[in-house]
Design brief:
mainly alpha
Length: 205
Amino acid sequence: MLLGGALAALFVLLGAAVAGHPLPIDLAVAGALQGWWRGTTGVVTTVISDTFGIVLPTVFAVALPVAAVLCWHRGLRRELNVLLRALPVLLLCRLTSVVGKPLFERSRPREYAQFSYPSGHVVAAASMGLAAVLLCVWLAPRLTRWAIVTFASITVLVAVSRLVLGVHWLTDTVGAVLGVLGVGLAGAAVVRLLPRPVLAATLPA
């Protein structure tokens, strides 16, 4: 809970710091990648960005309640319990972008719809990753490390794609991860998905 609160506070502080003007590192990265979004590079990067930042997180978000219904139908109480606890955590994480964009009203590096901070694509990818890791912790502990590496890589890939497309500043992507981890860890503590179990079977029904 404390770690989540600290990360959420950093998310807010960073947003307040960059709302008025980009940091030097933002300008440096944007300058280095200026114009990369044009042509074939832009087309390929857009596909990557939308696949891992929109399509996959959407499929994951739909799959969780479907899985919960299947667990309820089959009488898998423990699995249903975990899924029902993970769902609100995922929802809270996704709200980071919905709340943050109008709160900070940050302009994009180039003309583009909506505000910039935090990156919605990165929020979606990071939210999916955090929820997936929590599910692995309780339901498939042996896959936890694999999930961390896989979804961290996806989040970084999405962040880089948004920078290459020139629609986000570097701090938009950093803020997205801070916000998701902050809200997600605090939310997971509230619904008792954290700290991780000594034995997963100890989860209350």
